[in-house]
Amino acid sequence: MRIEAITFDAGGTLFSPREPVGATYARLARAAGIAADEGPLEMGFELAFGAAPPLVAPPGASGVALLAAERGWWGDLVRATLGHALANGGAPLAEETFARFFAATFDHYARPDAWTLHGDAIRCLEALRDRDLRIGVLSNFDSRLHGLIDGLGLRPAFRAVLASTEIGSAKPAADAFAAAAEALGAPASACLHVGDSLEADALGAKRAGWCGVWLDRRGREEKSDSVGVARIRSLTELPARLDLDSL
What we know:
It contains ten helices and eight strands. By secondary structure, the protein is of the alpha/beta class.
């Protein structure tokens, strides 16, 4: 079946943090009175993020309840990050100090200027603009995603923007892809998802009955073709691959 709808992952695919997370955390930690270095914080974040549960909120949560669930998830992750970075690093943090640091990190990543758009994303979206396609975002993110999409000037490109906390399901779960297909009004077999995670994006899409494309900017060694998904090194490859039906 012809592709009718395309969704893109957000973080790491369309845009990425402007500086390494460890550098941002170290600067904000110093401002909050916490002595922690960039390297341990970077590693601590990677460990904490890898062990975190899916970023979702209780079904039907909205408004204050949704924000509380999102802040709770990120609060646990930031606390775990500091736990790794400050292991054997002295007395436990005062709760007031942690709260000050967490608020600074949460507010920082809500700002568009904390992120940078990938050039290949801009060129890809421009190349797809005049095609008869329904284009959206499907991201394991929270409700701050909408402000980032607006602030980075991406809103006109998308018919729907879906954050995992708002739809109650996170990739690679099939329910997340089903919610996106419904929002874009296309059957799963006519949908394509592109993202920088082989497991959550490309393989999750494939298992949901979609076409999955893995964006592998770093040229890693995994053989995506052996598991039935296409691999591209740049989003600029996508329009031509669609034309050639080579996905």
